[in-house]
Amino acid sequence: MAQLLPLMADINNMALRYFADRKNVYLFPWYIADVTISDDISALLGKAMRESFMVIDKGFVTAYYDFDSADELCKTACNKIISDPEYFPLVIKKIYEYSAALDKSSIAISALDASILSSSELIDIYEKYVKDLRQLRVWGWIPPLVDGITDSYLSNHIQKVFTEHAKTQGKEARALEYYTILSSSDKQSEVQQEEIARLAVLRSFEEHGWLPALKDIAEGNFSNFEARHPEAFLRIQQHLKEYGWLTYSYVGPLMSLQHFFALVSDNMKRGGIREQQQSKQEYYANLKKEKERILIDLKVPLEIQRLFEISAECMFIKDYRKGVYQRSYVAMDNILTEIGTRLDMTLKQVKFLLFEECKEALLEEEKEEYRSIAQSREKLCCYHIKDGMLSIFQGEECRAVIEEFVSEPVKDEGEVSELKGTIAYKGEVRGIAKIVLTVEDIAKVNEGDILISSATNPDLILAMKRAAAFVTDMGGIISHASIVAREMKKPCLVGTKTATHVFKDGDMVFVDANNGFIKKII
């Protein structure tokens, strides 16, 4: 019989607690994810996260969650996955189904000439988009929920039952190593797909004899590149059109030509292009063979194999559906930019309005009032969601609400010198800490540094290549940092909760991803 996590009979003394913070966030599309986990998801799991509170201060979001109800939601999702063999396949089916629908509508939205649409047509498109996004978002919440918001429930459960089995086979000492391999996805992540395609771009330069372009890239000579190498530039533009969304995250921008040049320059410094491409392509095939070998050698029972398959698929699909979200955000810029034009607002200002507010501003000609509201929210705003109901505030009212809901500010925890985290990939390394929250922070990361982030995204991949290890505040075994750490074979700790507050740039730190901690070296 499947072992289930204990649920609390009742939740008392609910209290909002600091969860995480992040740079470069606007109201849209962040609030939609919070609405789905506070409302829509109850249709799937019979409960939701009861309360959350977000402060967005000049694009820097600080999140506060009701951890009691959040944990109960995670345990419920995990128990449903563990106990019902038919439920997880349904989740995956729904995620792919709604992903395909959102991708299809995103392509259509991108192709529209928004300037010729009526205001009603713009709002209809926006309304349908929100509906489509919420449909995917609610099912898309299941993979991260099963691994927990505060504790890695699914991962901990799998490690426990697998370690117990490994003992019977005399392999307990290597249980963590085997767990890391068996729980990894053997499907190419979209980050890996982009790099393989990027290496193919460089190979095409060689095949077409565009050697001067390669020489300029190797030497960092990018001035007037388009004029000097028009064919090579066109090939690069094709690549950016296909993969530019990878760096978009929540608010953009798309992958720039400069970012692409930085990535390919890094590739060229790391050896032969053909060899790198072959190594990337072979990684997943070799991983699949290694998983098959371990399963046979350790005589892993079918039920534990099923749990590993769930973990691996969660790891892949969590990143996959994030890509679908990002492509949709890029597409919606077409519509939101036109709405902004008609409301005399910037794209950024439009993204500080809820859908219902955009509708009222555009169709009921309330643009003066909402322009003022958007401008105020750019500087500071907050929203509170309780039992699915969202309330939003800005200006002086916002400051009063923050004082009401936030009992104390987020502390830098300067006296703390050591934190525990979940091991995503084992290893030990010493290095200089670098706090990396946005693309602008990549430049300060040198080879061998320790990258510390609230949560990594594909736009930080260049910094991750340079770093010797990764440490994050948020995320579990199926997070982006975990995926990249396993692909790059670099020590990684996730879910430390406050690493970006405890450590600072220049700290010498020791990451022990064998025992699950990071500490400052005095």
Key features?
five-stranded antiparallel sheet; alpha+beta; 522 residues; globular; eight-stranded mixed sheet
- Percent helix, as a range, is 55-70%
Strand elements, count: 13
As a whole number of angstroms, the C-alpha radius of gyration is 24 Å
Helical run tally: 22
Query: CA-to-CA gap between the ends?
Result: 49 Å
- Summing up helix and strand content along with how strands pair, one would put the structural category as alpha+beta
Strand order of the largest sheet: 6-13-12-8-9-10-11-7
General form: globular
Write the layout of secondary structure elements.
Blueprint: E1 16-22, H1 27-40, H2 42-45, E2 51-57, E3 60-66, H3 67-83, H4 87-111, H5 119-140, H6 142-146, H7 153-168, H8 175-182, H9 190-207, H10 211-219, H11 225-228, H12 230-243, H13 257-269, H14 273-297, H15 302-343, H16 347-350, H17 355-363, H18 367-379, E4 380-386, E5 389-394, H19 395-405, E6 418-420, E7 422-425, E8 428-435, E9 450-453, H20 461-466, E10 469-472, H21 480-488, E11 492-494, H22 499-502, E12 508-512, E13 517-520
Parallel strand pairs: 8-9, 9-10, 10-11
Antiparallel strand pairs: 1-3, 2-3, 2-4, 4-5, 6-13, 7-11, 8-12, 12-13
Helix pairs in contact: 1-5, 4-5, 4-15, 5-15, 5-17, 7-15, 9-12, 9-14, 17-18
